[in-house]
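In this supplementary section we document a worked example of the pipeline. Step one takes a protein sequence of length 101 as its only input; no multiple sequence alignment statistics are reported here. Step two produces a three-dimensional model, which step three serialises into structure tokens for compact storage. The input and output of this example are shown verbatim.
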Amino acid sequence: MARHELPRPRARKRTLRITLFVVILLALLGARTIASTVIDYQWWKELGQVDTWLSLYLYGFGPLAAIPAPDDPVRLLEPPAPPAEGWLRPSPPARDRSELE
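The serialised model returned by step three reads:
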């Protein structure tokens, strides 16, 4: 009959210590991002614009989205048409500060 041994308490303590250290390190490294996100959320919530904040927040992560798979139906769509000519009028060039003096 096989004899099963439980891990030694010392090995478990070391594993727990390493795991705890890694968790605390990750929390400290992400604290600034987490705090900034919470503050932004609270501000947008105060304005009553949480939906707008969420849209902007997700739009920031849009470039991180995966490329469509080869069998994805979106690949069957035609590419977008170029913009219409003349509809966009850029503002006049900024004046040089020396002209203002």
